[in-house]
Design a protein that fits this description.
Layout lengths: L5 E6 L6 E5 L3 E5 L6 E6 L7 H4 L7 E6 L5 E6 L3 E6 L8 E4 L3 E6 L5 E6 L4 E5 L7 H10 L4 H4 L6 H7 L5
Antiparallel strand pairs: 1-2, 2-3, 3-4, 5-6, 6-7, 7-8, 9-10, 10-11
């Protein structure tokens, strides 16, 4: 799915999703059990053609991290921005902060802080608004901690609920 080297990766807390950050200016969200690409988060608009994405560009995505609720992803890129994506509304980043020379990012275990490490040896912390995950998401995370994607289809549930459990609603 990527056109260049993968720089960073992270599992969601329920291990149902896997995010990869790449030099091709994109973060891709995958189902780690089936290999299906579920969502593509672009750091460059319009998205680059493969020839540009596979070469040198100033939008390399350096790091990606999942939040504890599994519905938010933060990423940093060489374009000088920290982006926080809400996976349920992934058209555009939910939050953007300017941060030059960023190398890595990570959500705190309590989800209300993001740390960003940079090339100058410093770490900057960003505050995130507290939000309570929907009961639907809490149930999905609980079930997915026990049942992998390939086993969801064997559950005696309506198709729409199976698709929800497999994150095909993103």
């Amino acid at each position: 799915g990527h056109f260049h080297d993968i720089q960073s990766c992270d599992f969601s807390p329920d291990s149902a999703l896997f995010a990869t950050a790449c030099y091709d200016t994109r973060v891709i969200i995958w189902d780690p059990y089936t290999g299906d690409m579920l969502l593509e988060l672009g750091h460059l608009y319009p998205p680059p053609r493969p020839i540009f994405a596979g070469g040198a560009n100033d939008h390399y995505v350096r790091s990606v991290s999942f939040s504890k609720d599994g519905l938010h992803v933060c990423s940093v890129a060489d374009d000088g921005y920290l982006r926080v994506w809400d996976l349920e509304d992934s058209c555009d980043p939910q939050y953007i902060a300017e941060h030059q020379n960023a190398l890595c990012c990570s959500f705190s275990p309590q989800d209300h802080r993001i740390s960003v490490g940079n090339r100058t040896g410093g770490v900057v912390f960003y505050a995130m608004p507290r939000c309570v995950p929907a009961l639907q998401q809490l149930c999905r995370v609980t079930i997915r901690k026990q049942v992998i994607s390939t086993k969801v289809d064997h559950l005696h549930l309506p198709v729409r609920l199976k698709e929800f459990l497999k994150y095909h609603d993103l």
